[in-house]
Amino acid sequence: FSGVYKKLLFNHAGTRLLGGVLVGDAQDYGVLAALAKGETPLPCKPHELLMGKASGPAMAGGVASLPETAQICACNNVTKGALCTAISDQGLTSVSQVKAGTKAGTGCGGCLPLVTEVLNATLESTGQAVSHDLCEHFAYTRTELFAMVKAKRMQTFDALLAYCGRGTGCEICKPAVTSILASLWNEPIMQSEHQTLQDTNDRFLANMQRGGLYSVVPRVPGGEITPDKLIALGETARQYGLYTKITGAQRIDLFGAQVQDLPNIWEQLIDAGFESGHAYGKALRTVKSCVGTTWCRYGVQDSVGFAIRVENRYKGVRAPHKIKSAVSGCIRECAEAQSKDFGLVATERGYNLYVCGNGGARPRHADLLATDLDEDTAIKYIDRFLMYYMMTADRLTRTAVWLDKLEGGLVHLKEVILADKLGICAELEAMMQSLVDSYACEWAAVVNNPEQRQRFRQFVNTDETEPCIEIISERGQQRPGDWPSEAVSLAQFTVLQEHTKTTAAQARTAPRSWVPVGTVADFPPNGGATIKYGKVQIAVFNFASQGTWYACQQMCPHKKAFVLSRGIIGDTNSIPKVACPLHKKTFSLESGACLSGESYTVEVFPVRVEGNVVSLELPAPDMLDALLATDVGCHLATARDTMLEPVAG
Predict the structure, then answer these.
(1) Beta-carbon count within 10 A of 138 CB
(2) This prediction's pTM
(3) In this predicted model, which residue has the larger pLDDT, 81 or 244?
(4) SS3 content of the chain, % helix, strand, coil (to 5)
(5) Count of CB atoms within 10 A of residue 240's CB?
(6) What is the C-alpha to C-alpha distance for residues 47 and 44, in angstroms, rounded to an integer?
(7) Residues 6+ apart with CB under 8 A from 315
(8) Burial of 491 (C-beta count, 10 Å sphere; 0-12/13-18/19+)
(9) How far is CA 276 from CA 206, 263, 300, 309, 315, in A?
(10) Which of 332, 459, 513, 573 falls between 20 and 30 A from 395, CA-CA?
């Protein structure tokens, strides 16, 4: 009914949920998955998980139905009962506090939606208010901040922070606000006032992968590509030793690029006719297509041509989360348009427009918004739909979740988009057209700007480069070795601390000297850059909004990745911190302590600025090498044991 199909499988006794299928409505996935993993009997009769009791909704409709023994966080084996107890006993009121107090959500992060549900349900059960503030720096939702930025025409994070915020910001609010600014004004994100506010993917215009390496994903509109462009991709990948894979979105991904090689790689690709694919951004990714009437005997519309038109219109448009689309040339739906944020399925009279579909961990079948549209009308409705979503969605919310939370649901959305119930459609169309008109390839701007190319240096005090993770060969290609488990990673850190305890004590008491490492201009305001000292990499941060400088080891102890200088800096409870760009572990820039609840720490170093010269107070290079040499971390990043020396052979 209404495009929804649900099937659950139970044991013969009807006391255990074994698995199931959810099509069109997967909002109960998290609860059902936890019940299926649990060892205790179901809290209700089997049919009540779907149909509910006569007096209420389906039992699966919330975390309240989960038993206390239900596993919420698989990485750290945290149960619902342990979460609820910690929230009540420790007075936890935010997800960050829950992560620090219980370790739930500090592994892969996939359980965070369920952790949030447990937190909110527990707070509500005790009569406490559930906060929807963006973070500790802004006592407003993203929707409220969007309205303020739009009404006051504010164009920088600092302006908004001064108007309605406090502190210096963090890894949550900085990307959220820059996303709002991009959705409204679309200024280049590589401008100095925007760049260090971005997550590392946007800051370096590439998706960070394991070991601090990056992927390169050129745009291939509609999945259509010429032989010459394919050859250009292959030649570039071969020249830089990049792992090559065809993605599920009909384009080609080149993995393993060093940060310092990115401008040169993109210069070659731009010369070959490519432009940025925005795989790194919370933006339109791709518009997938089947071949439609171009080749297929069943096609009824030119799905390739329309997909290219749609992709070229919305490329670069930033939103609360990534956006995916597709165009199918007939009802056989080979492009899978009904699993996308918006999709078009060809009919004899035009296109049916579907919205708010989703694949991934919680699939959702898209809803039919309008039927038999000509291309221009479809574009008009998509303009309205996307801008309304961008104006009203929470941070990091896909369209599927947004529609589920939208008051009035699909009926309301149709009234706004099709019937102009709110009288804002002309404004929505004008706002989208402004974004379309201001598009520019972000990589072309970098390639043609020597100053911006300098920001991609591995080290600011030397032209030397060095690898930061061990590479292995597999099926004729190069890739990083496998990461160890979370338990091994923490054990490695503990063993490393014990192994270097004496050296660390000596280093802290040994004579130190002030070592010049660069000029003020080498370190971006409110961001970091890396210097090389002997065999050690050190991250140096220019905390311009505080008027202070900090330095710490470049290696994040969690996954032994040399990436901390590329993280977002900010504060929590007035403590200056940096968030690792890989998994958002946060570390105090004053003490080096992990603020996310784990036992990790990082070494910190005093910084002095005299005139234009930036210096660090450091022990002798050989002493620091024994503590933090890159080759030790490089080995541990892929070691499956806790040995500190590379294994011969």
Answers:
(1) 24
(2) 0.85
(3) 244
(4) 35, 20, 40
(5) 17
(6) 8
(7) 219, 221, 275, 278, 284, 439
(8) middle
(9) 9, 12, 31, 16, 9
(10) 573
pLDDT surpassing 60 at residue 1 = no
The CA dihedral of 360, 364, 368, 372, to the nearest 10 degrees, is: 30
Of 106, 117, 133, which Cα lies nearest the Cα of 62? 117
Count the residues in the chain: 649
CATH number of the 282-440 domain: 3.30.413.10
Q: Count CA atoms within 13 Å of residue 615 on its CB side.
A: 13
C-alpha distances in angstroms, 100 versus 15, 60, 590, 596?
Answer: 35, 28, 18, 5
Return the H-helix or E-strand segment holding 504: helix 501-509
Distances (CA, A) of 2 to 25, 331, 399, 407, 419: 10, 18, 18, 18, 22
Q: How many helices (H) and strands (E) does the chain have?
A: 23, 27
Express each pLDDT in 487-505 by its tens digit: 777 776 776 666 666 777 7
Q: Provide the 3-class DSSP secondary structure of residue 326.
A: strand
Q: Return phi, psi of residue 571, to 5°.
A: -145, 155
CB 163, CB 148: distance < 8 Å: yes
Statement: residue 562 has pLDDT above 70: yes
Give the pLDDT confidence score for residue 346 in this predicted structure: 98
Helices 112-125 and 80-90: crossing angle in degrees, nearest 10, is 50
Q: Which residue has the tokens 């070592």?
A: 515
User: With 90 as the cut, is the pLDDT of residue 230 above it?
Assistant: yes
Question: The tokens of 421 are what?
Answer: 């119930």
What is the CATH code of the structural domain delimited by 471-636? 2.102.10.10
The helix (run of H) or strand (run of E) holding residue 268 is helix 262-271
Domain borders along the chain are 5-125, 142-199, 200-276+441-456, 282-440, 471-636
What is the DSSP annotation of 280-324?
TSSBEEEEEE--GGGT-TT--S-HHHHHHHHHHHHTT-B-SS-EE
In 455-526, where do the E strands start and end?
A: 471-474, 477-480, 513-519
What pLDDT was estimated at residue 65?
Answer: 66
Bridge partners of residue 558, in order along the sequence: none
Which residues is 515 bridged to in the sheet? 616
What is the CATH class of 200-276+441-456? alpha beta
Residue 248 to residues 288, 336, 589, Cα–Cα distance (Å): 9, 11, 40
Distance (Å, rounded) from C-alpha 561 to C-alpha 636? 10
> How far apart (Å, rounded) are the C-alpha atoms in residues 268 and 233?
9
Domain 5-125 has CATH 1.10.10.1100: yes
Q: Is the dihedral of CA 509, 514, 519, 520 positive or negative?
A: positive
CA dihedral 79, 83, 88, 89 (to 10 degrees): 80
What are the tens digits of pLDDT across the range 394-427?
Answer: 999 999 999 998 999 999 999 999 999 999 999 9
Q: Which tokens go with 309?
A: 């038109």
Q: Are 151 and 287 in contact (CB under 8 A)?
A: no
Q: CA torsion angle for 312, 316, 319, 325 (degrees, to 10)?
A: 30
Q: How does DSSP classify residue 339?
A: G
Q: How far apart are CA 183 and CA 390, in angstroms?
A: 7
Rounded-to-integer distance, Cα 75 and Cα 487, Å: 9
Per-residue pLDDT at 647: 38
Q: Is 360 left (phi over 0), alpha (psi -120 to 50) or beta?
A: left
Both tokens assigned to 479: 């890739």
Token pair for 293: 């009437």
